[in-house]
Amino acid sequence: MKKQEIIDILYDDKSNEQLFKQADQVRADNVGNEVHLRGLVEFSNICKRQCKYCGLQSCNKEIERYRILKEELISIVKNAIKLGYRTIVLQSGEDDYYDTDKIVEIIREIKKYDVALTLSIGEKSFDEYEAYKKAGADRYLLRIETTDQKLYALMHPNASFENRINCLQNLKSLGFETGTGCLVGLPNQTIESLADDILFFKELDADMVGIGPFIPHEHTPLKDSAAGDFWLALKVMALTRLNLPDINIPATTAMETLNPNGRIIALRSGANVVMPNVTSKEYRAKYEIYPGKICINDSPELCRGCIENKIKSRGRTIRKEKGFRKNN
Ligand code: SAM
Ligand code: FES
Predict the structure, then answer these.
(1) Ligand 1 atom 21: the closest Cα is on which residue?
(2) What is the C-alpha separation between 88 and 110, in angstroms, rounded?
(3) Which stretches of 144-229 are DSSP H helices?
(4) Could you tell me if 42 and 211 are in contact, meaning their C-beta atoms sit under 8 angstroms apart?
(5) Separation of CA 14 and ligand 1 centre (Å)
(6) Alpha-carbon distance 79 to 76, whole Å?
(7) pTM of this prediction?
(8) Tens digits of residue pLDDT in 144-188
(9) Ligand 2 and 138: CB distance under 6 A
(10) Atom of ligand 1 nearest to the CA of 145
């Protein structure tokens, strides 16, 4: 699509239902009816960065910090595998405690099992990414967050847009299935820049794209900002499906936080992936990126059963393979 076409659709709410239907059809034609489940482990909420929207940023002194060490982390992963997950996603703040050797050790341990492994641990050097890849990591998630460079600079003190782009290009060149995405509804974000975000996903040839509405957190500088709009986030997601027909697109947890049926609506509007939380109960509430996060009092077992029932009751099935972009 041309940029202007995307902009026109984002501004016009009269044809939303048609857009969601079309994205659903493109999803069915290109990646089928199966939904991929990825077990998400939130293993550390310690972060050295100060992303203005994020509850984990280092300036937030109200949050109780935790880090899950290797042995416990592996037992959480083993439990997720027992529950049937074929992909494990390890996510954390940028926590330097986990140096390259520690992450490599964890990757090797997990890759002894027959699962795909995704990392979502932030910006690292080329050499670090290379070491993760050599150790067996398959995929990496790093959202660009916004392609509006001015807004990016405002939202990310002491960080650089160029480095974010570099990281994504390095991940791609190393052969990771690379995931990116954006936040929808950041203060002063424009519709035009959301169109640029979608074109950026296309240009990068992202293998996965996660779109989430911004949700203000009371212990961040954006505490008084308005939340992003669920329907606008859904439109950005649907347009991403139309522009990148064969990629993996999650129905994000942030969508469900703003709309109690958000993930199912997303699965009917272009999404084909869900990432249920498999972290033990005691840590869930502490990984408070934004308030009102779903499932913080639930167990991995409950989350698995709940989402599986919801998916099956809508006539979709769960994919039993690892669920790479290209077929297996
Ligand atoms: N540190 C890693 C990174 O930066 O990629 C992963 C963890 S970070 C918490 C994961 C994602 O949470 C970010 O990419 C961001 O889009 C999302 N996020 C952070 N704060 C948010 C908020 N207030 N509302 C919605 N999503 C948010
Ligand atoms: Fe580091 Fe959000 S600021 S995870």
Answers:
(1) 54
(2) 9
(3) 149-155, 161-173, 191-204
(4) no
(5) 31
(6) 5
(7) 0.98
(8) 999 999 999 999 999 999 999 999 999 999 999 999 999 999 999
(9) no
(10) 16
